[in-house]
Structures are given as structure tokens and as C-alpha cells.
Amino acid sequence: MKGHFPIERFASMRTPFYYYDMDLLRQTLQAITTEANKHEGFCVHYAIKANANSQVLKTIRQAGLGADCVSGGEIEASLKAGFPSSKIVYAGVGKSDWEINLGLDAGIQCFNVESVPELEIINELAGAKNKIANVAFRINPDVGAHTHANITTGLAENKFGIAMRDMESIIEQASQMKNVNFVGLHFHIGSQILDMGDFQALCNRINDLQDQLERHHIIVNSINVGGGLGVDYQHPNRIPIPDFKAYFDTYAKRLKLRPGQTLHFELGRAVVAQMGSLITRTLYIKNGAAKKFCIVDAGMTDLIRPALYQAYHKIENISSEEPFETYDVVGPICESSDVFAKQVDLNSTKRGDFIAIRSAGAYGEIMASQYNCRPLPVGYTSDEL
Ligand code: LLP
Q1: Atom from ligand 1 closest to the CA of residue 266
Q2: 275-313 pLDDT, tens digit each
């Protein structure tokens, strides 16, 4: 046994699969609620897109978090996991009519609207049902985040949100519509952000926008700052729980909330990344001309982050205590980008050894595909093994 993995239980299991350490998830949730509850009006939602495993969702719901959804399927998953509809928010640049209707029928807390044409359709569909939909406007704050280009969202060049210069006009248009109720502003600048300065920049921008609105006598009920807090992919054992204190304290200190305003967060990665590992078996060790390959039975279909974003995940041989050797860890998919890592040091590895690819609880299982007609990986929790 290495780390917290019950490898004797793994012996009879078909690989690859995701393993979720539920004790770590519960400790992480405890840290989130303890730190957020120190500040009045802070409400934390979980971004379902990071991991929608049903046991994981139930545990998060039990901790009292709300749900942040970006599709009809995610609204259904949240309702199934027992999230109250009054704590479900729904964002996304391209909401289909059936998805909007699903949200209206469920009576969700709020639609985070990203364009005027979308606002018009929500108003029309809500009118057809004689309902009033709460809407918040996702504003593109043109604030950069120091993270991978594919996961920044808050720059003017990105497809997300409404330009700042159009904010007042959309608020004015909403006030003329009968079936929408404007409740707040929504922001999200990107993901895997570790520099609190990026969140401070967002706070400064929101403070300016609030001052601007106040000059027109508009005070919103809620501000939603999205998610984005990163995790330490290099040290999943040393730093398993992100620094939620620094994160919430940054907002408490820098954002000037008006009396009675609530501040919403939509954390995804920081909640679930560290509790998950992709467990795979070594199939072959191949001595190439220049290097050694450790060929495993998981591939980019099971965890696409290294191939898609050149993301780093720590890799460990959890079956071996032998001296270290250097390998390229690769999968079986017919694509040359199907590489988990190059030149990594692993305890000397042989066929059958279990390899853990760490920090894979967020954007792992949920982004899996069936390319090459492969079965989707299953997620197992420590509670059930
Ligand atoms: N709210 C909104 C509006 C979002 O777009 C996202 C993530 C979140 C919240 C949650 O962000 P988080 O706290 O997890 O950073 N697949 C990529 C990440 C894409 C994130 C997309 N939006 C990855 O594997 O790194």
C-alpha cells in the first residue's frame, strides 16, 4: 500500500477507473464552508462541469453547496442529486429552448444570461409559461488570468459574457420585459488561477462597475464571481486542500459589497481535483531506441487534460518500491498526443503494476470519450470499495 490507495481491492478490478477519496472530499468541503461562513452573505456553488459523479454530487449537496450548471443535462444531474432548485444557477453562451424550459419548469434560482437575443428568448419562453425568470448578466470584465490560454474566459476577445459598455443597456432592456427579473451580475475570469492578484483585479473591476451602476441608482441583489481557484498539481500529497482562507479573504477584503448583497462563488476544480486519481495498469514496458516507454491501459480518452492542455499530473507507481527509473508514460490510443507525461521518474515498473495519475478528480471522468470504441471509465468512491 502506497499513499491512501487500497490496492489489494484494486487487484480484481478492471482498469482503467477513477478512484475518489471521499474523506479528502469531505475535508475539502469542510474547509470551504468554514472559511466561507466567516463572511456574511457568501454563498458557494459547485460547478457541476468539473465532476458529475452521482456520489460526489450527493456529498457536495450534503455539505450545503448550491449547483452551477451549464447545460440541461447538468440541471437534471443536480436535481437528481437532490440540490434544491432554489440553489441552482444556469450559465452558458448557447442555451437551447428545451434547456431554458427545463430551468423554468424546475424553478431554478437564476439564469446567467450572456447576450440580448438570449434574454429575449428567456422572456418569451417564461411568458408562455406565465412565469418570471430571475436573470443575472454575465459581464465580460476584460480581466486576464495568468493561466493556460485555453482556459481564460474573461478577456474581451473571448466568446463569453456581455461587453461592459453594453451592461447598462441590457439592464434597461430587461426592465422593459415582463417575464424576467434582473437580480445580479455574473463574472468568471478563467480557471486554475493561483495568483490572488488576478482575483483582486476582478474585485477592482466589479467595484468600478458597481459605482457606475449606483450613479444610475441601480443596486443589484447579488454578485457572482464565478470559480477559478486552482490546485497544486505538483504536490497533491503535500497540499491536498487549496488555500480557501486566502481565496475568500481576498474577496472579503477587496470587494465592496453593498448592504444586503450576496456574493456567490462557483468553484469546480478546487473542490474535487485532489480527491480523484485515474488508476491504470501497466501493460508493457517497451525499450525504445532512445527511451523507455511505460505503456498503460488508460489513454487520452480517459483523461484528456495532458493531450489537450499539456497539463501536468503527478504520476506514481503504487505497486512498486523499487529504485526509480525514467519513462515516458503513454496510452494505447492511435494518436501521437496520447502521452500522459514524458521523462518521469517512477519506481521501477513491470507489467501489471498499478499507476496512479493524480489530481484527476476535476475535468477527468466527465471529459472522457469513447474514441477508438473504448468503454467509458467508471468512477468508484472510497466509501464503496
Ligand atoms: N463558472 C463558470 C462560468 C465557468 O465557466 C467555470 C469553468 C467555472 C465556474 C468553474 O471553474 P473552476 O473553479 O473549475 O476553475 N476543462 C478545463 C477547465 C475548463 C473550465 C471551464 N469553466 C480543464 O481541464 O482545466
Answers
A1: 9
A2: 999 999 999 999 988 899 999 999 999 999 999 999 999
| pTM, to two decimals | 0.96
Does ligand 1 come within 6 angstroms of the Cβ of 201? no
Please classify residue 22 by burial: count the beta carbons closer than 10 Å to its beta carbon, then call 0-12 exposed, 13-18 middle and 19+ buried: middle
CA–CA separation, 72 and 78 (whole Å): 10
Centre of ligand 1 from the C-alpha of residue 231, in Å: 13
Q: Tell me the fold of 7-17+274-381.
A: Lyase, Ornithine Decarboxylase; Chain A, domain 1 (2.40.37)
Domain ranges of the chain: 7-17+274-381, 22-271
Instruction: Evaluate whether 81 touches 61 at the Cβ level (below 8 Å).
Output: yes
CA dihedral 80, 86, 92, 96 (to 10 degrees): 70
The number of C-alpha atoms within 13 Å of 162 and in the hemisphere containing its C-beta is 23
- The domain 22-271 is classified under which CATH number: 3.20.20.10, 3.40.50.1110, 3.30.420.40, 3.40.605.10? 3.20.20.10
φ and ψ at residue 190, rounded to 5 degrees? 150, -170
Contact 55, 383 (CB under 8 A): yes
